[in-house]
Amino acid sequence: MSQVKKIKTALVSVFHKDGLDEILKMLHDDGVEFLSTGGTRSFIESLGYPCQAVEDLTGYPSILGGRVKTLHPKVFGGILSRRSLEEDCKQTAQYEIPEIDLVIVDLYPFTQTVESGADEAAIIEKIDIGGISLIRAAAKNFNDVIIVASKAQYPVLAEMLRNHGATSTLEERKYLAKEAFAVSSGYDSAIFNYFDAAEGPSAMRVALDGEKKMRYGENPHQPGYFFGDFEAMFTQLHGKEISYNNLLDIDAAVCLISEFEAPTVAILKHNNACGLASRDTLLQAWTDALAGDPVSAFGGVIICNRPVDAATAQEMNKIFFEVVIAPEYSNEALDILEQNKNRIILIQKQPLKTTRQFRSVLNGALMQQRDTKVVTEADLTVVTKRTPTPEQIADMLFANKIVKHSKSNAIVLARNGQLLASGVGQTSRVDALRQAIAKAKSFGFDLKGAAMASDAFFPFADCVEIAHEAGIEAVIHPGGSIRDNESIEFCDAHDMAMVKSGFRHFKH
Prior knowledge:
Distance between the termini: 51 Å
Radius of gyration: 30 Å
Strand order of the largest sheet: 10-15-14-13-11-12
């Protein structure tokens, strides 16, 4: 242990008191004196421990409706004084400033207040001033002071006290200082983003807690990390540790399935749907989703928007897949799915709430709003002589939902609520279409009467020509090419229906 420091005085001022009583008992038993304010002081005294009021130390009461309580030289001098500097020691003695060796503090719940829908006055009052100042002061002086900046660090401090009493090493103090600056920077980022959302972006501030080291990144030679609260969205019931690539597929799956209301199963591979069907029952949805590409489904990610029953699980269990996601599972279904010890079984507890996307680019980052536009029949403009039937409109909208979540350039072929095939990630839209047609035929699908969706406009008529040869009769695309008329004229000449959605859905 290096540079061991004894804790003699602790300043405690917290909003969250759960788990604090054990820490206070160990500190008291080791002779530590307490200094506190308001409700925390009452809590400490209710446990039978003496506690000096900050007001008695400073000679000033809490003022301005509680906005000013600890902002005083006798408090901050005791935290920031450098015990190894003779001049600091002389000044603290001259002004009767007690040394404070431990600061336990947390912050007003600013983010929770914003999320509650409170008015601006209530939100502004939850911008912590004293707490954030105490955190920064104690963390800056980690050579002498321990800072516990949130209840998340209570277990760390409790373990320290159990192991070696009311003392600390430099390594422990520096670690807790690092965690404290994570708290303060995250808090300031949340405040900035609140104001930034109202005024328009002037900078990008992102703060995510919950660091989780992955086994590796996209490839074994790349270190990988996840920052966020995965457990807020999912409960993992079974299986191995989730990987970096699993998370990418899970994100893609959650975004895709949110588009569908009827019982639906989607199978994804490398962030793209290789199978998807909406049916009256989940079992039939699974059967028809798998039929779309039973080869690519191997090792994929399955997501369902209905509880998984035993019959569906029995069929799923016939192939190897890495992850299954659903809102619920019957006990019998779990018994079946857990037969593979590594299979990751997740319950999705809530929808994806984030609306922004980030990507590192060059020496900076790109930020955009998620593509949350759901194209409906009201968005469609019929541009051909042939008016699509209600069934064709349903097929086109269904295909358009899938192509929106496919890597560009993308073409999706669908009919009767089933993905027949897709061509994704191609440098040419023609290549994407040919890939989709070839896949559909390889799995025995007749494309006569199918609908085709494109994530972007057709620059030439070649795609509709190829589609017509394959038997496709209805086409949806955003439109916007200077050569749109060439595609429309071909459709008119060959009795095909075409609609424009007006919304491009590139995904790179």
